[in-house]
Structures are given as structure tokens and as C-alpha cells.
Amino acid sequence: MGTYSNDAINQLKALIDQVEEPLKRTYQTVHQGYQAETLARFLKAREWNVTKAHKMLVDCLNWRVQNEIDNILTKPIVPTDLYRAVRDSHLIGMSGYSREGLPVFAHGVGLSTYDKASVNYYVQSHIQINEYRDRVVLPTASKKYGRPITTGVKVLDMTGLKLSALNQIKMVTIISTIDDLNYPEKTHTYYIVNAPYVFSACWKVVKPLLQERTRRKIQVLSGNGRDELLKIMDFASLPHFCKREGSGSSRHSEYANDRCFSLDHPFHQQLYNYIKQRSSESEPSQPIKQGSFHINMPEPAVEGTEIAKTIESQMHKFEKGNGISGSLDRLKIKDNSDHRSRNCP
């Protein structure tokens, strides 16, 4: 980091050092011993403006205290069948590590339906994955590689993305708002694979709305991205939908048993067992309570709202275009059929 960056980090540190309990305690949970890297993330998210970064970080700490985020890894989603339903409808998992030691998170954007549980369960599960990543996965990787590892890479599978995804925009907006405000700059690079035409149409209008900092992180790869991703990670760390040679998703391929979205995958088994173990330690004489862990949903930022509206508008346009095209096709079929009838002997 340059002198300007270090000066900004030192200024922000001096301000944050003044916070009192319980903010100080939750701040320790956030930085996990990597203060400079944590402060730099919030500064980057606010274009290195110390005043704005300070407000963002304090707001984040207050959100954590008000919603007891430090305790969320002691609140398993039970029964297990409910958690399995959440996993089967919000497709996310960790498939391995890049060669630089960054965890690789896979997201099944196109096939996530968010229709098997209430919004609160999806939000709880998402935050638990974030917290497990930040408290367990990243510190473990940092120790293994002997340097601070505070970000990961995400591979976004657009297989199955359809116009019906309009119904999912609200849920995605809630999750992305929580990440933007409370887990900023946690992704080093986004790799988009298996992108259908509907994604390409939306991407053209959404891309100009993104901040330059965000645009630089996003790479849209050809097909399932296998060849490009193998430049930064080993084959074993590829998400299952990238393992088939050539283009297209491997959803129904020989790698179906290696689906990192599944509750049966080692990552999710370790995560779920970790939460249940923490729960039994925190309340050893109490049975695990059923019910979701309610989180106050933050208001989406203006940029996020504008992007969501733009995607919705573009999808509607695309839908109308498909409707007209489909009607014309049906008319052509009917005309051809009538023509054949008239010419039948």
C-alpha cells in the first residue's frame, strides 16, 4: 500500500480505537487480528474517504450488535430437513482454493429459487456462511499460507437463468445489500460462467451502472470457464459445474456427486456441524430451538436499487420481445398449416 493508503488506514484506526463496548468486542470478531486489511476494505468501499469509511464501519458494528451477529454461529437451522431445503434452493458452496490460497465459492445463480423457506432462513444461512468464512476459513488459510488472506473468489453459474428470475430479485437484493454494507470488498474476483442470452442482455445495461472498482473485478468467461479457471486453481478446486470439458454446465454430469451446493458436501457438513457444536457449547442443557434468527434488513443503497430496477425493466422488455417473437412464430406455423391444408388433394 502507498503512503496515502497507510495514512488513511492510520486515521481510521485512530477513530475506531475510540469505540467502546460492545462495539469494540464485535470489531475484534470482524478483523480477526487483521486490522489493517479490514480497515482497508471499508476504505476501498468508500473510495478512501476516511469520514465515510468510519461511518460505514461504525454502522456495521452497530448492526452486528443489534442483531447479535457474533452469536449467529450458535444458531443452527433445524430440523436438518429444513436446512437441506434451504441449501437446495439457495445454491452456494465452497469448492476449494485458488493457487494463491483464496477460497473458491460457487454460486448457482440461475437455479436458485429461494422458495423452500421464509426470507429469514435464507438471510440467516447466508450470514452464517459469511461469518464461517471470516472466522474459520480465512484465518485457517492465512495460517497455512503464512500471510493475510482476507478475500475469496466467486464463480457464478448462470445455468438456468430465466425470465422467471424476476421473482428472485428481491431476495438477491436483500442479500447483496447485507454484503455491501457489512462485508465489503470480500471478493477478489467474480467469474461468471454458463451465461445465457438473457444474462448478456441484462449485463449490457447493468455494467455501466456499476462502480469502476466493481467492474474491474468481474470476468465473464466463455462456456463453463473451465480452461480459464484452471489457470488460477487446480482441477480439484473447480466447482462441479465447471469440470466438464467444453462449454455448458456439468449439472447432470459424472460430477453430480461432487456438487458443492449440497448439504452432503464436506464444506456444508463442516459448517453445519460447527454451528451445532457451538450451539451445544453455549447452551449445553438446552435443546436446540427451532425458528429462524431474525435480522433487521438494511435499506438497499441507491445504486443497488437502481440496478435491481434496471434488471427488472430489461427482463420485462426481453419477455415482451419473446412474447411477440413467439406469437409471430405461432402465426407462421398456423399459416403454413393452412397453406398445406389448402393444397392437399
UniProtKB/TrEMBL annotation:
Domain annotation CRAL-TRIO: ranges: 79-239
Q: What Pfam families does the entry give?
A: CRAL_TRIO, CRAL_TRIO_N
Query: Which residues does the annotated region (Disordered) include?
Result: 319-345
Basic and acidic residues biased stretches: 329-345
| InterPro entries found in the cross-reference section | CRAL-TRIO_dom, CRAL-TRIO_dom_sf, CRAL/TRIO_N_dom, CRAL/TRIO_N_dom_sf
Matching entries from SMART domains are given as: CRAL_TRIO_N, SEC14
Any idea what this protein is called? CRAL-TRIO domain-containing protein
Q: What organism, scientifically named, is this protein from?
A: Salix suchowensis
Instruction: Tell me the organism's taxonomic lineage.
Output: Eukaryota, Viridiplantae, Streptophyta, Embryophyta, Tracheophyta
